[in-house]
Amino acid sequence: MPSCFFITGTDTNVGKTVVSALLCAALGAIYWKPIQTGTCEGSDRATVMRITGVPKNRTLPEAYRFAPPVSPHLAARLAGVRIELRKIKLPQIVHSENLIVEGAGGALVPMNSTQLMTDLMAHLNLPVLVVARTSLGTINHTLLSLAALRAARLDLRGVVMVGKENRENRAAIEHYGEIEIVGAVPPLVKINRAALLRVFRQTFNRKVFLA
Fold this sequence. Notes:
This protein is of the alpha/beta class. The protein has one domain (4-209): P-loop containing nucleotide triphosphate hydrolases (Rossmann fold). It is built from 8 helices and 9 strands. It has helices at 16-27, 44-52, 72-79, 117-124, 138-151, 167-177, 193-203, 206-209, and strands at residues 4-9, 30-32, 35-36, 59-60, 64-65, 99-102, 128-133, 156-162, 181-185. The chain has a 7-stranded parallel beta sheet, sandwiched between helices. A two-stranded parallel sheet has the order 3-5.
């Protein structure tokens, strides 16, 4: 069975792109970010290619691209358009291919006046991984995100923690969130393909991703 996941987070800039890149490298997966804001500062697609060495033909173009580094609903409004779920369709790829889809911002980021990022997750119908920080405040942010994802009846598969190891926060999220921490990404001096593959081998539950 191919490994396909939607990567969301507890916040923006929490580490979703690094985790997405890591999984693309480890699983040989295709990368896709349906909605990209902040293209004036670059794109996550370009970042994934740069830090993993994944060729362009192993990534997919965004369904929506906006220049301002703001929430998708605001970026779209400023551009005079509306983000429509019907225009965001799972790519037609070989059935055996692995696919990593990265969301924009956190789990409840709005896409338009009535729909949130959770609606996109439900629309694409992929298993969901939550990326969370290890630092102070992560317990509250992560538990709230998990509650929102469960309320949306999404297929929640686990949490990936990013940052300096904090065993107490990890244990609290697993206990109160009733979920497994399926991977951890420590601070990296250099983020490249070799470093990401090493992290996957050392800290990720391979059974979740290579079943």
